[in-house]
Records
---
Amino acid sequence: MGSPSTHRWKFFRAGGFDQVRLEAPEDLAALRNLDQKLWAALACPTANLELDQRMLAYIDVNGDGRIRAPEILDAVDWTLARLADPGSLFREEPLSLASLHAGAQGQQLAIAARRLLQVLGRGEEGTLTPADTDDLAALFPPGEPNGDGLVPAALTTDAELQQAIADIIRCLGPQKDRSGEPAVSEAGINDFFAQARQVHEWQRDAEKHGVYSLGPDDEQAIAAISALRDKIDDYFTRVEMVAFDPRAASIMNADEGELARLSAMNLADPGSVAELPLASLQHGESLPLVAGINPAWRAAMEALREHVVKPVLGDVDSLSRSQWQELTARSNAYFAWQAAKPEVGILEHLTVERIAELVEGDYQGRLLALVARDMEVAEAAGGLVDLDRLLRLQRGLVPLLRNFVSFQDFYCRRDKAVFQAGRLYIDGRSCDLVVEVGDVDAHSKVAANSESFLLYCACTRRGQPVRERESLNIVAAVTAGDEGELMVGRNGLFYDRQGNDWDATVVKVVQNAISVREAFWSPYRRVSRLVSEQIQKFAASRDDALVNNAAARVGGAAAAPAESTAMTRTFDIARFAGIFAALGLAVGVLGAALASIFRGLLALQWWQWPLVIAGVLLLISGPSMLMAWFKLRRRNLGPILDANGWAVNTQARINIAFGTTLTQLARLPDGSDRALRDPYAPGPRLLPWLLVLLVVVGAVFLAVRAGWLGGAAML
């Protein structure tokens, strides 16, 4: 990169920077020698681009969802090496056998092209387009090897292997075969059986050390033993105490006093007798499992008999101490065995027995044999894949370069740029600089640096999905006109590049200058808005005061005396004398100022009046227009794309002239007839203007008569 080259480059200037023109195969061949500091972008995402997604996947070799400059250069070199006429990259024409290079790489593609032409029923003089390879399943039937190293279930007629493939897909997830079918790879097969062998060894350890199952339902068996372990141990301990000292029989059993106390209670809840022994000690060494059980523990004993005793000891009615010790020992060994259970994902989907069957049946070797069989045709099938890659690069590589190495499509306006998602119609205008975004808030934080007026819209297409989506988010740059009624909640209509219409609702606005014309009127609008708000606030406050005073007077009239004193009705002249004096002084100062202004204006020649008016307007609007002009000069495409994952390598300005082409305002068609009279428009109201004119004339007349205008008083 950046090494000396004899190639003579051509540049054009747009957006405030020099951009390279890519117009001939020689430009592409020398692209690796072009200094990347002169590239418009160095990386871009594969998503949200109006380009062939399969072509972008071919260029994105590492599959990270991003395309970088080195990958672009490799794609250019690969394509040029396989085309006999690289000029076809700049022409939208189909690919023929004559288009392929005569070298070894081109000949391999020629073999694949002949095979495809045969499949399509065309002769060797036929041509191919990307549409011919859109459906890879037609080129690579799932029941035949296709050389991608992936094995779908349809590749074998063996039902056992088909079930094994389905089991692996269920555990590890599918990989997509060239035929479009879910499949497994060699790495996936090896990973699955590595986990399966761990489970198999764990199962064999159980048999080796005599760890046996407690029955068909281990979990319920363990739960039953855990619930009764302490209570059954308590029973046999009491039996031993009675054997040790017969006097303990009456004490270890519930005595008459405890039974008498319980008899006075409500025994509807069996829990009230839970503290009594599990069964009467008269049963001795055999614990009854059916009759004579403490009612509080009857359900637990039934679960123990059903899930533990019957599967191991058979249908017995009592349990001896030795049998109980055997069951608890077995459960302890089972707990230890379960603690050593491998933590592998396949156990979430398959039973231990099924896993053992797959390991012992040598399914791994049989599946790997299918992978080897599929790879036998890799070279021949790879030719079809490379042909598909070439067809797509021949059609889409140059458009990608003209939106990556330069922004030629965007600034020349012959074609839409690949990052332009469509056109937004809203508030009597259309916006062409529309980019699809993911996270609105995250994008706006970066895109705000573009100095552009941005509308973020949520677009929906209910019941009519496009590319399996019924909603998306866009950002539109408003680069001409004025702000108008652009606000959150405003609705519009968005057309994507395929012409599909979407309902668009503004969800966020990033405010910036739109045009110098809007900046001219901005101070007056702000003043008008301020005056309107203040008048409304004043009117509201006076209305509240009037209501409150009326309420106070009505309430005070009932409590106040009927007669008012003379002092309350007396007007205090001395109190208001100062106020009147201050008002008179203010009026005098204001009159003198107005007189001075009128004197200066009347002294002007008629032709100087427009200059004065223009100067006043410039004084008011000039600062706002100047600020807007500077901001409009700084409008930048870069942050809008960078917020989407691009690595824009330059400023990419959007100046005022270019901005007017990106946002179109409503305009009547040429040759249209227009009726200027609006039947619902309010008629002319002359009275207010006559009153203003009379006030001005009266003020001038009084000023002349009072001599405030000096020499003008002689009139």
---
Amino acid sequence: MSALAQVPPPTTASSSTSRMSSSSKSVELTEITEVRRDPSNNTSTTHKYMKGKMLGKGGFAKVYWVQSLDTNKAYAIKIVPKANLVKSRARQKLQAEIKIHRVLKHRRIVEYKHFFEDRTNCYILLELCHNQSMNELIKRRKRLTEPEVLYYMMQLIDGTTYMHNNNVIHRDLKLGNLFLDRNMGIKIGDLGLATKLTHSNERKRTICGTPNYIAPEIIDGKGGHSFQVDIWSMGVIMYTLLVGKPPYEAKDVKSTYKRILANVYTFPDHVSISEPAKNLIRSMLQSKPELRPTLAEVQSHPFFTGPDVRIPISLPQSSTLEAPRWRINSRNEIVVDTSSKSKSSTSSRQPLREKTNDARPSSSSSKQATKPSAALDSNKENVPTGRVTRSRAKAAAAETGDKIEEKKSSKWAFKIYDDYINSKEDKKKDKNVEKRKEEATGGDADVDELTAKTAAFTLSGGGASTASSSSRRSSAGSVIDNDMFALETMHQRLSQSFSKSAPPSAEAPSPDEGATKWVTRYVDYTSKYGLGFLLNDGSAGVYFNDSTKIVLDPEGKTFQYIERKRTSGSEKRGEHVSETHTLEEYPSTLQKKVILLKHFRNYLSEQHKRSEEKESKGKTASSAVPVVEAKVSTEKGKGENLVYLKKWVRTRHAILFRLSNRSVQVVFFDHTEVLLSCEARSVTYVDKERNRKTYELGEVMGGGRPDVKKRLKYTKDILHQLITGAKR
């Protein structure tokens, strides 16, 4: 056992699956196994975590989203390769971080869970913050209003005061280390540069920090430094929140240090900042540490205590995207104004939550129906009017808030901090209830849970309608009946096949009975936009969070956009209508969605290409984010209507895709697949070795393929719950 394991309770870890990162060439784990040993009775327990996307990285560590497979709770995990700990100084630094962080227990500090290690890595399990860091907040918002700065600074003072009272100096306070929980509260994180003083008068001399936030006495290094360096960093943070950029930012680090040492900064004329705010910033950004106010003096400054000052009690999640409008209520409190029409139309622009990766199924439609397309187009004023040509689309893309550049689409970084785990995953499970559910369902307990989760799971919307009147539905009701009929037919066929009275058939399935279209790769990016998919014929599309869909043909020239529109005399939910456009020319209202379509397609195509190259060399395919792959066909799309992803739902063991051609694909997380057509007379099965074969149902039920039969039973139960939920 290494010295690192002597700080927290000694545990070890291992990986059952690994992937090679295409950028860093380092091994990326997809499942982490921790072995916790109890020295008192010489026993051990095993705990597994499924690792998701990377949340951030530093000089010698990376932070990932992980989910405990024991409790389904989500965490952040800091992974430090032991190759980076060869030098004793690096090991001591990590030991110090763990020793300091594990004893700090405060609502404004990211909670330390525990530490474990294996032969190659050290792991620090941490509390997961769901609304990213304040660095991403400023990138989206540019700058904040003064009530918001009051709200955040009070919380920062609260957490920093706790650390200083425990003789801890953070030494790296910056926007990137201030995280936002699901209640929009600050959590101070990353104590990698923190130090604990043996007494309050001790001075530290290590040169450390982040250039834009580093105090002048750290750069100078002659007299040492103490708690006042955190006060300086807080002054930089407050300035940055109000102005939109750090006060000493320059073209390079050396120039930045010169400006810090000379204390050269100004308040821009184009930004309205109150005099109390400027005065407080000036007091914190004094070159001489002894002249800076204490935290108590900062808290009692007129910026916080003035007669007209009102600090918000809370902030809405919509403030992550746009500035709140303030009003004074009857209790003389400052609150967000939601009464105006313009505000009510935009207050729903909250961060779109990604599908939870826990064991609970989630509907792709019912929960997201309240998230309008405005969330995808929060920079609408930048979109040109009229029809968009390729050159104008590029120009508009450069102006959008997300700064997505088309030329870099193949390297699009999916780095949104995980705000996609909702509060339900924090609830503890009743083991006795789970056991009874498993007994009732033959081991697939999560199937019964689909009913409550999919009560509003709509089955409306048949194949996409085109300009041809013959392909349109006269009313939404007939569409609903058709889709319901398709699922009911599948379920009925499967139920009959499982019935003892159904005789097995020796007839081999026709080659045309197997599935012709299926999802080969998908990426779940519903934390912000939606789920992207790539089909076996080369077409690609996106199921957006506002339930609209878009699909691009295999040639990459023509796309269809599908949305639900209410028509006179139609049912409440309306009917699905399709528009066909080319990438050269399309309505300006679709500009951002088309850009996203290109990014999703290029990303998934690039991942597929890399996968094929590595498979040809006998290597495991890799991916920068969780991407699921199936065996690919080179078959090209046929017919006018493109097949697209119509609905999807995630369960504990699988993800179910319902395509517009009324076929169903179930991708199990053990890398097997089941594909059913509308009639469900045969089943296409993909085994773990990626072999694809179509079977007649009687052959499967006759005992020839128990592995396929087991998955068909699971599929049947899912279909039953979806149909039941839709009819409620």
---
Amino acid sequence: MAPHETDIDAPDVDDDFDEVILKPSADLPADRFLDRELSWLAFNQRVLELAEDEKLPLLERANFLAIFASNLDEFFMVRVAGLKRRIMTGLAVPTNIGRAPGDVLADISARAHELQLRHAKVYHDSVKPALSEAGIQVVTWGSLDEADHEILHRYFTDQIFPVLMPLAVDPAHPFPYISGLSLNLAIRVRNAKTGTEEFARLKVPQMLPRFVRVDSREGVASLRYIALEDLIANQLQDLFPGMEILEHHTFRVTRNEDVQIDEDETEDLIQVLEKGLLKRRFGPPIRLEVGEEMDPTTLDLLIRELDITEQEVYRLPEPLNLGGLFEIAGIKRPDLHYPPHVPTTAAALTTAEANEPRSIFASIRRGDVLLHHPYESFSTSVQSFLEQAAADPNVLAIKQTLYRTSGDSPIVQALINAAEAGKQVLALVEIKARFDEQANISWARKLEKAGVHVVYGLVGLKTHCKLALVIRQEKGELKHYSHIGTGNYNPKTSRLYEDFGLLTADPQVGKDLTRLFNELSGYAIEKKFKRLLVAPLHLRKGLLKLIHQETTNAQAGKPARIRIKINSMVDEKIIDALYLASRAGVQVDVWVRGISSIKAGVPGLSENIRVRSILGRYLEHSRIFIFENAGDPQVYIGSADMMHRNLDRRVEALVRLPNTEHITELDELFNLAMDDATASWWLESDGSWSRHTVDASGAALIDLQDHLMKSMSKRRRPGGHR
């Protein structure tokens, strides 16, 4: 068999596939799914537990506090907003069987309140004091002396005062619009002449540093920072001369920012999306965070003017918006960060004599190359692949999907260079990638100006698959070189996200991608591919058939096992199929980062299902599907999570890995992740998560990511020969 030829196709979901498999078993219990929203909050609790972990480097703990806050903001802007909209419009609330819609939001509110208070407590009682001991102080105005006050007043006068815009609220000035996620001061003042009380709102400028450095003086050795709103609040007399400052309190509003687009009634998706982005700014409020000392008069005014409920009010210790801790976490103190890690170049992409890149096309021709980022370098593999393709005179065409990247990305520049060199270049840009819409529109237009053929996806679908195809002329023939990954083509996040990617010269994969790209830029999605499973038409069906085969094998006494690594496990049909497999005796391992609606270890339902979660230095982002197949494993990697949006409303792609060494590598990775000796969170049968970091003797368990960094920096992976 030639190095890239394969003899096993992707599951045929049309010819012999019985649709009854797609229907849930009648005897499965009605309460078999965990609530997805509460499961997401449980995921963010795991992030918070990292911030609470005193064994982690201090500035990394501060970073996890900021990640928790940022995550929760997006959760409210999208998930809570979406649920509220569904309830108000009378639509069904999914995966909440037997629960009243109002109870769903009430449960979310109660849990979110609990977590936000815990989050603030970790900052005030643990992280902030530890930072102070390490020489990084977050101070208050009242703790500073007159010399510091003078320095900060000059800074306020020169750098802050000119950009502030106090807005009065009175019969001549209606209550102002409060932008989402902005930090604000609610100020009550009294007119010294008339004695009347007035209200004003002051927005804390978002373009200024969240924490202002207090200049060090002789005898002051530590770094000192003051929250920007604390500094501004103590200069209010400059903003309201002649007025008596009665009260001032911070508050913050979260709005519904989930853009809804009617793609069926437009000929220009970009124009409609840009209008939608403008509407995003004016979405209804769904959360009000206030300082815990806010007086009742001010709070009542905000509740009335913002038209929110008491349930949506979150009283918190100041400072609000601890997402601003990203600035503190970025302080250059190597002793307070994770040790630096330099990714290695994949062994298959280096020469035998030295760690120097050779022709990447020659390397790929030698055999499939499986990449594991960030342990292996993105820049010397995927980025180099596209940069060499752009510069190679034998390359005729480059086709690529782009979901999230950056305008200054070398990936975008490589496509521009290729187009300017006269090559055919197609970029399928998903401009509907949430919260990256405006940026994607900007650099997509930059690509168009350079001569790149830019396609903006399909009506009604997001293009989420991670695909790149290079067509190269070699000895009078056209050769296909392909990359299929689990993560975005973003060099920045590739250093923070854990992902897999496959580089291959397999002609069948090349043909599959050629057809898929043609259909993405045309009008239809093909149902059948040889080495790919593609959503929305047949990815779910293909996976269900593979799960069903494991169930059948277990019933026949053949080897059967299912292993899935995923970001979110929500889809009811997939979960039901896994329950049926468990009942048949199939050992099911689910390695999930975020949401898990599947239950684990429930007698009679899922006693053969284990669910583990690993969080740490890197964001676990890859998706892996391993099916034992009676001793002939079928293994896929790709972009799809097990969620309705991925399987029904997105173009996703999984690629099958035929290389036995790659299959073994992924299986060994699973063995390590699911081993009781590896630190992880376990999903218990009651739906709770328990963290396991030490063994019975108190010894620390293996840190998976640290282990991989050390082991992969030492090894040389074989080049992918079968």
---
Amino acid sequence: MSDTPADPMIGRLIDGRYQVRSRIARGGMATVYLATDLRLERRVAIKIMHGHLADDNAFKARFVQEARSAARLAHPNVVNVYDQGQDADMAYLVMEYLPGITLRDLLKDYGRLTSEQTMDILEAVLSGLAAAHKAGIVHRDLKPENVLLADDGRIKIGDFGLARAVNNNTATGQALLGTIAYLSPELVTRGIADARSDIYALGIMTYEMLTGEQPYVGEAPMQIAYQHANDTVPMPSTRVPTIPSELDELVSWATARDPEKRPRDARVMLDQLQDVDKIVRSSSSDETALQPTMILSAGLPSAVADAETQILGARPLATAAKPATPPTQPDNAAKLTDKARKRKRTGYWLFALVMLLAALAGGTGWYFGSGPGSLIAVPQLVSDSPEEATAQLTELGLKTELGVQYSGTIAAGLVASTDPGAAARVAKGSTVTLRVSQGPQPITLPVLAGLSTDAATSTITELKASVGATDAIFDADVAAGTVISASRASDAGDVSQGGGYFEGMNVNLVVSLGGVPDVAGNSVDGATAILKEKGLLATSGEQVFSDAVPEGDVVSASATKDGPVREGDTFSLTISRGPEPVQVPNVVGMAWGDAKKALSDLGFKLKYNALWDAPFPIVVQSTDPASGTSAPKGSTITLVGTPA
């Protein structure tokens, strides 16, 4: 990735020691930069966690875990970790800098590798991984992106960000950490990982190096995960026939769906790879080796050169030692007998050769006709139409039979699986069953309304459906954490009281948050705090007169929009202005009884002197507050009386 001037990290001095020079790569959790260690005067790679993750304790813990895991390893095939620390709000990790490319880059450039190249890379990765497994560390994220190929030829494993202790094999809600294309079946189905999960990922990587492609592809990650959990990884030679059978067997061993059938750790697989390496390279050498060439001397006498039998390297006879007398004539009878004996001996050899060739021809015919050579590898037919699959099998000399199978990942009408499975070897003329997808399996959902959220989720997942969207709303009639209603994600059909559905589909839930708290009678600040605890906002609204609520306190609260109330919604607070003012009537000159009734009927309280108890009639002389003024309802009016 090229540097960008906008990156504020370029040129920054971290922890007073590491001068950032340029950006190397960026991932989901951190960015890696090239930096200079000013203290030791060397280039290093510094990984800096993204700022928005700094407050996430889980990410920070995983970041520190990478440092601790990698720092425990000291091996030529593992990227060295030099330092780890915190500079202001940045968590960083200092590593060995390896100029070069990743295995992913190599595969993009070359497509696939030779058997020898694959074994060289695999041996280096297994060596480093064996050291990790011996130290009690499982990598859990092996993939070509994490295999570094240095310019000087070194091969190293990096990125121990998901590493865990070997015996820490329980799921913690993060079961599918890692890259989906390399996840082992036990990680997909149970969220459990150990050293054998790394072996599975290496097996998939080996397949990819040999063939240039991954064994499983799909439009959605769930489709790929389903294949890892339920299918057998095909042999690489089904894609590239020239791949040696020994490497086929190594890939099959490493990618066995049952972890018990895989190598128990990287050391066991490394030992086996070294044996395979010797066999494969020896076989390759035998096929390409030059046959020895014998060069005969040009100085051989013509008599020797013409003879039927030549003895090479024999010491030539000196012509000076030959007798001077002329040679005697050969014995014709002996000569004929010798030729007959030679013809007879030649006849035996020819007969033996013919019999050997006949035996070889017969053996070859048996091998390819009814022996092991007649076996045919079942091709990968998943997601093909039955017609296309039948045509492929017929061309290979195999028969077909149709079956059915429910599938949540393969569309109805296409081949969901075969029996025997892909890469299995069967005799010519054998029958392969094509199981055609019927779509997702129908299921019946029970009553969901009234269940707790956890109970409803468990019920749905046990039926092999999934929980889709969860909408949480306030409902005073339903306890918090209880399902109010449920609906099918596909068509919004109500399944609150149960109903028909399909395996693998999503069920949407509406869950109660309980009732909105009653804030009447609280101060504005108090009401705002109560609503905030429930995830609701408050704003000051209308002010009204209230005889029951003191001035400045909340009379009531109401949602500012119609419909169900959700977290984050705003409530308008109606605030009391106190009791409504009432005009004091004119009761001056009125008899005491009439004045009392007039004021009491308006809600006023009365205060008067002892003169009112006199035995003679009394009339109102004055009022306080005076007549015609306003006073709060319920306030006290003082009356002054005088004899009539």
